[in-house]
Amino acid sequence: AESESSGAEVELIFNGDVFEMLQVPHVAEFEPAVEYPPELYHSSSEEDSVLKMAIIVEGHRA
């Protein structure tokens, strides 16, 4: 990304618990009404985090 005012390159890094990843299960197809087993919330692997982030983004679309 670039700064609109100066055209300088900008890197935005989110750190910490910004997205509450432990409250989201790592599943390919998320259904809000389904109760998922606790073990589907614990993983923080890269692959599972990508699934979780997709659920978070989809849940916040306008």
Q: Can you describe what's shown?
A:
It is a single chain. The chain is an all-alpha fold and 62 residues long. The chain has a domain at 21-59. It has two helices and no strands. The chain has helices at 39-42, 46-59.
* Strand fraction: under 5%
Uncertain regions spanning at least 5 consecutive residues:
none
Helix content: 25-40%
Q: On the 0-100 scale, what is the average pLDDT?
A: 90
Distance between the termini: 22 Å
Biggest sheet descriptor? none
Q: Would you report the number of β strands? A: 0
Query: What's the number of helices?
Result: 2
The arrangement of helices and strands along the chain is HH
The general outline is elongated
- What's the assembly state of these chains? single chain
Radius of gyration: 15 Å
Would you tell me the structural class of the helices and strands? Answer: mainly alpha
